[in-house]
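Ticket #4471: structure export looks truncated?
Reporter: QA, pipeline team
Priority: medium

Steps to reproduce: submit the single chain below to the structure queue and open the exported record.
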Amino acid sequence: MFAENLKAVMKEQNVSQKELCDMTGISASSMSQYLAGKNKPRKDGIKSIADALKCSVIDLTYVDRPTRYISDTESMPGAFLTPGKMTVKDAARLLGKSTQFVRSALQQNIAPFGFAVKGRGNKWVYHISPGKLFEYLRGA
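Actual output as written to the record:
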């Protein structure tokens, strides 16, 4: 996933592997591994690559790149032209936090990108807005 997204962003911006290595200080061998999908950089490496390419970490890491979720702000703010479901696990991965951290924030209604509703017994139902999560991550 990371490799495909990285290649796509590099192609969109017409950036070569060597240029990206020069911009980030990442070795050619490491970058080659990332592009081949054999390894994935740590969080700080992903951030460095995103900064160099002037894109978000989400553009490099999310399974369905954010362009999949397009807000139709004229007809209905927050509505999505392409439906998508964001799981707690997805949100935690994008935030660099544990799933329990995200669940707690949603349950306490302090997460700006979603909420949780108590179901039967000790069960919770989680609602996460991909658009609001992307906005939050871009602002963070």
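Status: closed, not a bug. The export was complete when the record was re-opened. Leaving a note from the reviewer for reference: The CA atoms of residues 14 and 104 lie 41 Å apart.
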